[in-house]
From TrEMBL:
Keywords: ATP-binding, Cytoplasm, Kinase, Lipid biosynthesis, Lipid metabolism, Magnesium, Nucleotide-binding, Transferase. It is found in: Cytoplasm. Gene3D superfamilies: 3.30.230.10, GHMP kinase, C-terminal domain. The keyword Glycoprotein does not apply. Residues 85-157 form the GHMP kinase N-terminal domain. It is an enzyme of class 2 (transferase). It holds the Pfam family GHMP_kinases_C. PROSITE patterns: GHMP_KINASES_ATP (PS00627). This is mevalonate kinase.
Length: 315
């Protein structure tokens, strides 16, 4: 039997970093996906095939013995195998069209798709159980995760985290994603913000309150289809991200350029590299290439409404 699951990438419209410290956040799943296929084998190994390479280790190995990028998969395999001693091997193949390490939730989407794919070989789990399993797996590489990325990858659509209720999206704007092509490490950026908080608890707490208030205003703007306010709130959120120092010159230059033709723009995800997001009207989309340096990639994202999907094939 083959078990196949796929999960979407994500963008954070509002609230990254602050969400790790308990604020709300607005996230959306987007139309880029990772697919994970799992099968039983008789090799007494766990084998993981991905764009990052192949790992094959004895079935009794712990996830700590694996290189960090493979740990979530070994963790999930161990967890399921330990509940079913008859298994003599597992092969997990990851196939992704989500760029890695640029803030689009590649790691969370992989954890969700892997949790759904591997668990389905053993027993049927609810989406909520798959989400909890995936968050545990992601913690093997990123212990401080807020769980927001995994949550939106599971349920799809646009959500006001921690709620999983979908926000209806009636605005007719392009969600332009521009990739700085600077890889980043979410764990390091989150640790940097932890240091900012340690150094100035009062200001950090004020910023968290400001972020929560901003998100309340965004929800009202979305209900009123008030795209001008929505865009200006993005730029306001960017100021908070600048203050906690997760921006840099490349991102600032991209944001400043995109502000010329968009209603607002900001970092999406951990920052320090990765992607920026801008709200762009249709008639301005053809002005984008002239605004971005030639080495930057960009695309207009559609919101994914499905979240994680999975099925099995008898062979
Ligand atoms: C990373 O995509 C988003 C952060 O807020 C971390 C997290 O929520 O776990 C930076």
């Amino acid at each position: 039997m083959k078990s196949i699951a796929s999960a979407p990438a994500k963008i954070i419209l509002f609230g990254e970093h602050f969400v790790v410290h308990g604020t709300k956040a607005i996230l959306a799943a987007i139309d880029k996906r990772v697919t994970v296929t799992s099968t039983f084998t008789n090799d007494n190994t766990i084998k993981v095939n991905s764009q990052l390479g192949t790992l094959e280790i004895p079935i009794s190995s712990s996830y700590e013995e694996a290189k960090s990028e493979f740990r979530p998969f070994i963790f999930l395999a161990n967890k399921m195998i330990n509940s079913n001693q008859n298994v003599s091997g597992l092969e997990i193949t990851i196939d992704s069209d989500i760029p890695i390490g640029v803030g689009l939730g590649s790691s969370s989407a992989c954890c969700i798709a892997a949790a759904a794919s591997i668990s389905e070989l053993f027993k049927k789990l609810s989406s909520e159980k798959i989400l909890n399993l995936a968050i545990e797996a992601e913690k093997t590489i990123f212990p401080d995760t807020s769980g927001a990325d995994c949550t939106v990858c599971t349920y799809g659509g646009m959500i006001e985290y921690p709620s999983i209720e979908k926000i209806s999206n009636t605005f007719d704007l392009n969600l332009l994603i521009a990739n700085s092509m600077i890889p980043h490490n979410t764990k390091n950026s989150v640790e940097k913000v932890n240091k900012f908080k340690e150094n100035d608890e009062d200001r950090f707490s004020q910023l968290c309150n400001l972020e929560n208030r901003l998100i309340d205003e965004v929800i009202i703007a979305m209900k009123n289809n008030d795209t001008t306010t929505l865009g200006s709130k993005m730029s306001e959120n960017q100021k908070y991200l600048e203050e906690i120092q997760v921006s840099n010159n490349t991102l600032r230059n991209m944001i400043n350029s995109l502000n010329e033709i968009s209603l607002g723009s900001k970092i999406t995800g951990a920052g320090d590299g990765g992607c920026v997001i801008a709200l762009v009207e249709d008639e301005n989309m053809d002005k984008v290439p002239a605004l971005l340096p030639k080495d930057k990639e960009y695309f207009s994202a559609k919101i994914d409404t499905k979240g994680v999907v999975w099925s099995t094939i008898e062979e």
